[in-house]
Amino acid sequence: MRSAPVRRAARPFSDYRADYAYVLTDLRRIALVVGGLLLLVIALSFVLRV
Fold it and tell me: Which of 15, 39, 42, 50 could serve as 11's disulfide partner, Cβ 3.0–4.6 Å?
């Protein structure tokens, strides 16, 4: 007969902060790139309109 598998205690959310510290900076960088490209497309739509 097999015993039930042992469950590890779940780590609290604060323990993951160090592991994923880079995510917020990456999201900011992505938002800046997307915002810049969106502004470029809007500017080009006005410039290329004849």
Answer: 15
Task: Say whether 47 sits in a helix, a strand or coil.
Answer: helix
Q: What letter represents residue 12's amino acid?
A: P
Q: How many residues are listed for the chain in this entry? A: 50
With b for 16 or more beta-carbon neighbours within 10 A and e for fewer, the 10-33 pattern comes to eeeeeeeeeeeeeeeeeeeeeeee
Q: Evaluate if pTM is beyond 0.85.
A: no
Q: What percentage of the chain exceeds 90 in pLDDT?
A: 52
What are the percentages of helix, strand and coil residues in the chain, rounded to 5?
Answer: 60, 0, 40
